[in-house]
Amino acid sequence: MNKTAVNEFILLAFSQYNQLQILIFLVILLMYMTTVIGNIIIIGLIKTDLHTPMYFFIGVFAALEISFVYVTVPKLLANLIIGMENTISVKDCITQLHFFHFLGCAEGVLLAAMGYDRYVAICQPLRYNNIMNKSICVQLVLGSWITGLIYATIHSVMTSHLPFCTFEKVHHFFCDVKPVIKLACTDTRLNEITLTTVSGLVTTGTFLLTMISYCYISGHLLQIRTAKGRCKAFSTCSSHLTIVILFYGTAMCTYLGPFSEDSIEKDKVAAILFTVVTPTLNPLIYTLRNKEVKRALRKFLTKSVSKH
């Protein structure tokens, strides 16, 4: 085995689909632009018209989404437009891996906090402003960032200490933990166990906390006698619940699966859903399924048209 230290990896991305490179590039570029523009619009609407704790969390989540796609998609687009295998230094690879997991974990924890916010709003409406005060909201956001930082640091530090002995090809479109540690020329069982355990604890833990909130919400909705009242109460959390299902569904498919050669393509598809498709859908879900966001958007558009 060649023991020469490796300074670069090759990101294969979708190099096996040479004839579809331009089509894939255009589709992902459209999704990327939709994600960035959609979330910027949401942040702008929240800043001007929507000032409740729920929209504070949505605004933070939108900012995380922009950062999340920025970590991986521009590099992928560059790879596709060049139309060839793209190199990335080991240092940049570990950096990308770190920020990807930091932002992804922070989003997951923030979704759990948003679930708690919906629980308080629906089940304890009279105490909502006292419980979800500005200090608590900021603490919950900081908690999501700190959790994400710890989670990402575990993976990036453990991965950075692995020896990579040959000029290796990463069978992925960005530096994620699973495909990178497969390239190490040493026993990686500890890394694999750590990834599965820590990812499992964080993903299932935050998902269960979110589901606990929705169990209480469901119990409260059953006590409402009129169908109109139940629909009105549920409409305030339907957007969040949809995003929770999309986020955790794709995350679990990506990180709780087996470490095998057969899973490479499946992991790549799941990663596309997690890193590109889901962030594209999120701002659309919040604008199409949320009456207050739609009302704020119409108000903004009316003002813009009247000025001209």
TrEMBL record:
Gene3D superfamilies: Rhodopsin 7-helix transmembrane proteins. Residues 23-286 form the G-protein coupled receptors family 1 profile domain. Keywords: Cell membrane, G-protein coupled receptor, Membrane, Olfaction, Receptor, Sensory transduction, Transducer, Transmembrane, Transmembrane helix. Pfam families: 7tm_4. Its main location: membrane. It is a multi-pass membrane protein. InterPro entries: GPCR_Rhodpsn (IPR000276), GPCR_Rhodpsn_7TM (IPR017452), Olfact_rcpt (IPR000725), Olfactory_GPCR (IPR050516). One of its GO terms (molecular function) is G protein-coupled receptor activity. GO terms for cellular component: plasma membrane. It is found in: Cell membrane. The chain crosses the membrane at residues 20-42, 54-77, 97-116, 136-154, 198-217, 238-257, 269-288. Belongs to the G-protein coupled receptor 1 family. This is Olfactory receptor. It comes from Leptobrachium leishanense (Leishan spiny toad).
